[in-house]
Amino acid sequence: MNVAFFLIPKNNVVCLNAKTTVRQALERMEHHSYAAVPLIDEAGRYVGTITEGDLLWKLKENPGLDLVEMEKITLKEITSRTMNKPVRIDSRIVDLLSLAGEQNFVPVVDDQDVFIGIVRRREIIEYCAELIKEKELDRTRH
Fold this sequence. Notes:
elongated, 142 residues, CBS-domain
């Protein structure tokens, strides 16, 4: 088994670009009910994770900031307090598991650091739960 087994491909992942405005980011995150999303650059490389908390800190630092002003601030102006460490697609599964224990999702990149998708902790837990169920069923059959 490898990282690709759990991969949610980039085309099925909401990700934002550093040129995205704060307002656009908030609207996309709200629409998809995400608290954090990968941030990629113009070349498609993973450069970080933007969270609701990062956006809230920006709002706190700028009292009176309204929706019109939020359209003028891009994500490259936001200080990111979370860096979900990525794994390469050819990484060992143990490397993925150690990161998934600390992060809700693990960004996956290719050998050029181009973002190709994510692995969510949820799928890993569901897979492990299924393995445990199967093992318990095997035990009860014998």
